Amino acid sequence: MSLRATSSQTVGPFFAIGLDWLNRTDLADPGVQGERISIEGRVLDGDGKPVPDAVIEVWQANSQGKYAHHEDAQKKPIEPAFRGFGRIPTDDEGRFRFSTIKPGPVPGPDDRMQAPHIAVTVLARGLLRRLATRIYFPGEAANGTDFALQLVDPARRDTLIARRIGDEAGRFEWNVILQGPGETVFFDC
Amino acid sequence: MKHLAGYRRPYPGTQPNHLSPLYRSSIKRAPSQPLIYLPHTLSEVTGPVFGPGDVDIKACDLTRQHGGEPIGERIVVSGRVIDENGRPVPNTLVELWQANAAGRYLHKWDQHDAPLDPNFTGCGHALTDSEGRYRFVTIRPGEYPWRNHYNSWRPAHIHFSVFGPAFATRLVTQMYFPGDPLLEFDPIFNSTPDEKARNRLISQFDWETTLPVQALGYRFDMVLSGRESLPWEGK
Prior knowledge:
Largest interface: A-B, 75 and 82 residues
Mean pLDDT of chain B: 95
Helix content of chain B: under 10%
Number of helices of chain B: 2
Oligomer: heterodimer
Radius of gyration of chain B: 19 Å
CATH superfamily of chain B: Aromatic compound dioxygenase
Structural class of chain B: mainly beta
Low-confidence stretches of chain A: none
Largest sheet of chain A: 5 strands, mixed
Number of helices of chain A: 2
Number of strands of chain A: 10
Strand content of chain A: 25-35%
Distance between the termini of chain A: 22 Å
CATH class of chain B: Mainly Beta
Helix content of chain A: under 10%
Number of domains of chain B: 1
CATH superfamily of chain A: Aromatic compound dioxygenase
CATH topology of chain B: Protocatechuate 3,4-Dioxygenase, subunit A
Shape of chain B: globular
Number of strands of chain B: 12
Number of domains of chain A: 1
CATH architecture of chain B: Sandwich
Strand content of chain B: 15-25%
Order of helices and strands of chain A: HEEEEEEHEEEE
Structural class of chain A: mainly beta
Radius of gyration of chain A: 17 Å
């Protein structure tokens, strides 16, 4: 017998008063190593309407593929200036944007490397539980063998892979479709 | 090769269904496809770490954030953050936010016809101590009407956000008050099918933390997912 985890409840529409203090849309201060990237997109509901009362939280490794956490035992350099956490609210049009460095590959099961990715939590009014998903990058050879992507129906994998915007280096688009056609893949995790 | 122990998944019925039609906002926002089970990798068993340098130690007293005293009944809300194995979760970030005593949030979208309180913002945060304990001083939030169904009112509640040790342990929840007659009508509270799990969201009046002449104490413990097996146990 063990205890049971506390039930989740929605953040509701007014979370900004409690969560804004920790907003972080630029994860990497100058001096942090790695390829500078930005990711922007929208959170949309089942009618394709923008979700202006959502907040996404992101968690990622540094450019070497090392998490700033004691359970990452890889012999890779840690960067004290890079926590790897961002909290980004959506605006009135459901838009969000954050800038960071591209994460390096991190190990997966059987010590096979996972493709570079960012772990994402989505919170919003109407979501009684947080939604967990991932952002991958286009054109990565490792996407073809990535542990988590292989769990996903190939027809839906694109929802997890950001797209380049134009020719601008390091600028990506990735959207969160909560429901319906093109629904983003969410993980039970 | 090192075995990576994941975190336990919720016991059936103890978490809300994503789609709970009585809570109208979930109808167009809940995913329609089943979630894909993801065995935990390094990405899920790690998570952001916060320390004393990230927090304002004054942020645990919501009654002292302005020049004067907020209107309302002062209360002490305290408890422990533990995991399903009963182990304390130390040094983890707890955030909370709430309406004022009149049931009004300091938010541009809250149009409830009730007064704002210039001496009350309604937010706070703190790190748990080495035993997983936290403590906030605040005022009892008011109930308020919302647009969900005819004559719908939210029971008094305080929103909580907790990180825990990993991406997989993130928790956002709401704490309620004992004896609130609105609980049985609230679709958000009732979105958790398991009655016992639901009732664990109701704080308990607590003499031990009640301050004579000053403030009633309410206790609210939060339990985060526990490790499936601890890294140093069996292989």
